[in-house]
Design brief:
4-stranded parallel β-sheet; 24-stranded mixed β-sheet; about 625 residues; disordered C terminus; mainly beta
Length: about 625
């Protein structure tokens, strides 16, 4: 070899050592992922050294060093949302000066190397939103400098290693949305600096460790959506820094410990969807910073404590689907957050509603349905001027529709069906200009439908069936309600003719059966081009049968009327059910009925007078 060749080789070797001789672990990372295709400047020589020094060359985007010399070392690796594809090589465990590794929101797969337990300087490990599997390495117990462990939204399996209790520097741990199993180790109580722990949405089982009471600095605890069982330990009362305590959607049983009343900093208390029993402690009223109280879907009994009126910052009160008895306390009216949602439905509440409910001017939703509430709707409820949902169906509420509801101009949904309401619908019902859904069926409401209802121009669904309404349908109702999709007036005592009625073209469902309507069907109904369901049975309509050719029509029931003449041959291609039985029809069944591919149910019994000729179908006498 010539002297010049030797000199060139020595010069090349020196350049690698002085500029690019860093470090093998980064080259392992490059080889195991697609990072080189994302950042072309990231490159290594075949001998496993970098083409330039990542601590001296700014082209190594995502890398931070503790200096800019040949002796500097990488302390931060930050590549997020690229997406980065590949695995984490075990050689990365040699980057012992690394303090921060953030590789979140990528497409990494495989397991987390146990060699990561050697990253003794590591303070932040963020691998969330990847596809990593395998178990949490037991070697993580050596990461005593780590204060943030973020591995949520992966596919991690297996148990939490007891060694996690040795990670004494941990302040934030989020392993939610994985497939972790087994129980929560007792050693978790050794993490004295912990402020946040999210283990929700896994497959964890067993009981809550009593040692969690030692986590005096903890502010957020979320163990929801697991399979945890057993009692809630009284030691939770020692976690006096808690702001969020969320253990819903598990299998916890027993009673709520009275010690919860000492957690006066709580903003969110959530034990929904468990098997909790017993009553609600009055000292829960001491949690005056609560925004969310979610205890729904349990087996809690007893009454609602009057002290709950102290929870003036409450935004969501979820006590629904329990066995709560007694009356709605007067003090509940003192809840006046500007975004208040109250869910008391599906319990055994009884008695009359307190007039104090009208004090809740910030109320957005009031759910009291499926209880045993009696008495009348307090007129003071008209003071809830911001309410958008009122649902009180399936109770024993009596009395008339409150005229004070005219002030509820933001109300979108009103459900009062299956009660014992009487009296008439007041003209003020038309003042609820944003009402979309009015459901008052199966009451004993009398009188006529007020013409002012046409002013409630946002109405889409109207259910007034199963009452004792009389008179005619106001002629302005059809066209004024331009968004009306569903009109249900069945089982009343309505009369008159529909000849002058016009309906908006968007009407899809029209049910007028079991009334005393008469006259011929209006031609205008044939122009309702969205009509799918039409039920007029058991009235006194007469004249020819029409409307069978409305394009989207799938169901029509004209039975038990006085229709005459023959059946029309034009038939909607979508119609599946035609009932014209018990009328006074003549002629024969048109051939088109036999050729229809959609028609599956036809009843003409008792409809034809005299001899009937049939085409393709057997005539039913």
């Amino acid at each position: 070899m010539s002297i010049s060749s030797i000199t060139a080789l020595l010069l090349y070797s020196w350049c690698i050592w002085s500029v690019g001789a860093l470090p093998v672990p980064i080259c392992d990372f490059i080889a195991a992922t697609n990072v080189e295709s994302l950042y072309s400047q990231w490159a290594c020589y075949p001998n496993g050294t970098t083409t330039s020094n990542p601590c001296m060359d700014p082209v190594w985007w995502g890398i931070t060093c503790n200096g800019n010399s040949t002796s500097s070392e990488i302390i931060q690796l930050f590549i997020d949302s690229v997406p980065l594809v590949g695995t984490l090589p075990s050689g990365m465990g040699s980057m012992t000066s690394l303090q921060t590794m953030k590789l979140y929101a990528n497409s990494l797969y495989g397991s987390i190397p146990s060699s990561f337990g050697s990253l003794s300087e590591l303070q932040v490990l963020n691998l969330l939103r990847n596809g990593l599997g395998g178990s949490v390495p037991a070697t993580f117990g050596s990461l005593t400098a780590l204060n943030e462990l973020q591995c949520a939204n992966n596919m991690l399996t297996g148990p939490l290693p007891p060694s996690i209790g040795s990670m004494i520097g941990l302040q934030n741990i989020d392993l939610s949305y994985n497939f972790l199993s087994s129980s929560i180790p007792l050693s978790i109580g050794s993490l004295a600096q912990l402020t946040l722990i999210h283990l929700n949405t896994n497959c964890l089982s067993g009981s809550l460790p009593v040692s969690i009471g030692s986590l005096a600095e903890l502010e957020q605890l979320d163990f929801s959506s697991n399979c945890l069982s057993g009692f809630i330990p009284v030691t939770v009362g020692s976690m006096t820094s808690l702001e969020f305590l969320i253990i819903g959607d598990n299998k916890l049983f027993g009673t709520l410990p009275s010690a919860l009343g000492t957690l006066i900093g709580l903003s969110d208390l959530d034990f929904n969807d468990n098997l909790l029993t017993g009553s609600l402690h009055s000292n829960l009223g001491s949690l005056t910073r609560l925004n969310q109280l979610n205890l729904n879907n349990n087996q809690i009994s007893g009454s609602i404590p009057a002290s709950f009126g102290n929870l003036t910052e409450l935004m969501n009160l979820h006590l629904d689907f329990n066995n709560i008895t007694g009356t709605v306390p007067y003090s509940l009216g003192f809840l006046n957050n500007t975004q208040l949602f109250v869910y008391l439905n599906n319990n055994q509440l009884s008695g009359a509603l307190p007039s104090s409910l009208g004090f809740m001017t910030g109320l957005q939703l009031l759910d009291l349905y499926s209880n045993q509430i009696t008495g009348t709707i307090p007129s003071s409820l008209g003071g809830c001027i911001n309410v958008r949902y009122i649902r009180m169906q399936n109770n024993f509420i009596a009395g008339s529709f409150p005229s004070s509801f005219e002030t509820l101009v933001k109300l979108n949904y009103l459900f009062l069906f299956n009660n014992q309401m009487t009296g008439t619908l007041p003209p003020q019902v038309g003042s609820m200009s944003r009402l979309e859904y009015m459901d008052l069926y199966d009451n004993s409401i009398t009188g006529t439908i007020p013409t002012s209802m046409g002013n409630a121009s946002w109405l889409q669904y109207v259910y007034l069936d199963g009452n004792s309404l009389t008179g005619t349908i106001p002629s302005n109702l059809g066209l004024s309600l331009q968004f009306l999709s569903f009109l249900q007036l069945s089982r009343n005592h309505l009369t008159g003719q529909l000849g002058g009625m016009e309906f908006h073209s968007g009407l899809q469902f029209l049910f007028l059966d079991n009334n005393a309507f008469s006259g011929v069907l209006p031609v205008s109904l044939g122009q309702v081009r969205e009509l799918s369901y039409l039920d007029l049975h058991n009235n006194k309509f007469s004249g020819p049968v029409r409307l069978l050719d409305i394009p989207p029509l799938v169901y029509i029931d004209l039975s038990n009327n006085l229709f005459n003449g023959s059946l029309p041959s034009n038939l909607s291609e979508h119609v599946g059910t035609v009932y014209v039985n018990d009328n006074a029809l003549t002629g024969y069944i048109p051939m088109e009925f036999g050729l229809s591919s959609s028609l599956h149910s036809l009843n003409i019994s008792g409809s034809f007078i005299g001899k009937c000729r049939c085409a393709l179908l057997c005539c039913i006498h």
